[in-house]
Amino acid sequence: MLSMPIAHLAVYDTLADWEVGHLLVELRTGRFTGIAFDVVTVAESTEPIVTMGGVRYLPDARVADVDPAGSDLLILPGGELWDAGGGEAFADAARSWLRAGVPVAAICGATFGLARAGLLDGRAHTSAAREYLAASGYAGGAHYADARAVIGGDVITAGPQSPVQFAAATLRRLGLASEQTLAAYEAVFADGDQTAYPRLMAAAA
User: Which of the four, 19, 60, 76, 98, has the lowest number of CB atoms within 10 Å?
Assistant: First the structure.
């Protein structure tokens, strides 16, 4: 039997719950793609963490113990730890995933962490705001795009106001859905366009 593709979700205290919710649901269920992922949580230790919304996670594994070659995606949510100067272990993990040719999806504060680590210096990206990333001292300002979500090679980035676009961009990078399906997905979940619902449901048929 073929094994399920695996998405590794980095979890840490203050994780911003809403930023990755749409993406996790679409990966885990495969309801619009036909491909379901195994979502595995990784942290610096296997001790419980508490998200910004007060949800307690018990991590599945330590991020340092995961071989990126056995992964299909690393997801880095935002969280207060990034702005506080933390997250180095996860930025290091992102570097390892990218070296292995595995995509990394980062949103909000996690983009700050990637910028600080030099991982956005040479690739198209976005975040909460241009000025926000500039405060990291990174050298990639010329590659910043004022967009809801950006695919820069193996790195997908978005700001905190764009969880739906983040999900769509990640599904696009992974080649999991057609442009028609992704357009309908954003129309329904970001714009509340009821007329797009039949097109989206056609993908689930």
Answer: 60
